[in-house]
Prior knowledge:
Layout: H1 4-14, E1 24-28, E2 35-40, H2 49-53, H3 56-75, H4 79-92, H5 96-107
Amino acid sequence: MAQLSTKVKLYLEANSKTWNRDKVFLQDNSDGNGVFIALWTYDIAQPTAEQIASYETAGNAAETNAGIDATRRTEYLSWDKQMEMVYKDQKNGTTTFKDHCDKVRSDNPKG
């Protein structure tokens, strides 16, 4: 199940807005009712429960892809190691860097 924050961000993006922590605040009172919108000061209507629910599938996809992006960032290695691969490829006429990037993408495909 997608987090409320993800679904609210998608709702905002669909309405040409961006997340601003001064305009929306999510709260969980730990009373078993879960997270809810405690503050909403955008110049558009606060989303209804039905509108939020409509972003469930897109929210799940966004969260999955965010996890894949995080894994890819780690596996791509640091920028200095990438530059070293590029340098050696140019010097030796090899494709180590391209092969490395292709493997990271194939090992961590996006949905």
